[in-house]
Write a structure and sequence with these properties.
Elements: E1 14-19, E2 24-27, E3 30-32, H1 39-50, E4 54-59, E5 71-74, H2 78-89, E6 94-97, E7 104-106, E8 127-129, H3 133-143, E9 149-156, H4 164-175, E10 179-184, E11 195-202, E12 209-214, H5 215-233
Parallel strand pairs: 1-4, 1-6, 4-5, 6-9, 9-10
Antiparallel strand pairs: 2-3, 7-8, 10-11, 11-12
Helix pairs in contact: 1-5
The protein binds cytidine-5'-triphosphate and calcium ion.
Cytidine-5'-triphosphate binds at residues 78, 97, 99, 101, 103, 130, 132-134, 152-154.
């Protein structure tokens, strides 16, 4: 290899990372949200920066501060994140979708605050499905025949239809991404703490890889794997 001593594994690479949870407006003061803290995305950005990458950080709502040293793009809704992601992906070697994207948004957003009217029924909120950003990124990448590496995240539990690995494998296939980082949620797993247990699934048929530890440990393992995959695609 022509790798120079001291050259970091992602030197010269641009990595786009989405993080946090989207907020879907109901009216000017209310939204539908989720509990994503943004911590995993921040850990990924930090690991990518440490590996020498330029990082485009797409931040939906987060409980934590974005890391210093990234190109910060703040978004609110899934539709905003979609626009930002498709734009940031251009010229990126890697796109990592760590954001918790709302599957649905209110069909209508009231331009004025929804008022309660005494004596009348509670309003009914109709939802419509948001676009699948990860899938769109993959479709565009494939249409352009680019070698961009695309990484998804998923939290799965086993159920009567299959175990974690079966659900995750089906999702990887559906999404068409190169890597899917699967968080094992549920029985025997500590939830809501800073410890994680993940399986990294490869769309290219490589064996599943396990990683466990803090969100930083998991992020380091993911960025490591990304660096390895990239060095295979274009050394
Ligand atoms: N994702 C996305 N756009 C969406 C929903 C999800 O880009 N509208 C991305 C997430 O950022 C994540 C991956 O897709 O990287 C998997 O998200 P997940 O919610 O597990 O997948 P879904 O297809 O929404 O499946 P589910 O019905 O299990 O929620
Ligand atoms: Ca979802």
């Amino acid at each position: 290899s022509t790798q120079l001593a001291g050259l970091k594994p992602l030197s010269g690479r641009t990595v786009t990372i989405s993080a946090g949870g989207t907020r879907e407006a109901l009216d000017p003061v209310r939204f539908l949200g989720n509990r994503s803290s943004g911590k995993q995305g921040v850990a990924l950005a930090t690991a990518a920066l440490d590996a020498g990458a330029q990082v485009r950080f797409l931040a939906a709502h987060m409980d934590v501060q974005p890391p210093a040293g990234v190109e910060l793009i703040q978004v609110e809704s899934a539709l905003e994140l979609r626009d930002a992601a498709l734009k940031a992906a251009i010229g990126s070697d890697v796109v990592i979708m760590a954001a918790a994207v709302a599957d649905f948004r209110p069909a209508e957003v009231s331009g004025t605050k929804i008022k309660k009217v005494n004596g009348s029924d509670a309003p009914v909120v109709h939802l419509v499905q948001n676009p699948d950003i990860l899938h769109e990124l993959v479709e565009r990448r494939d249409a352009e025949a680019s070698t961009q590496l695309i990484v998804g995240f998923a939290a799965e539990t086993g159920d009567e239809d299959g175990d974690v690995l079966q659900h995750a494998t089906a999702k990887l296939k559906r999404k068409g991404c190169d890597l899917l980082v699967v968080n094992q949620v549920g029985v025997g797993r500590v939830f809501g703490q800073d410890q994680n247990s993940v399986i990294i699934l490869s769309g290219r048929g490589a064996a599943p890889q396990s990683a466990a530890g803090s969100k930083s440990d998991v992020a380091a393992a993911v960025i490591d794997r990304v660096s390895t995959e990239l060095s295979h695609v274009h050394p």
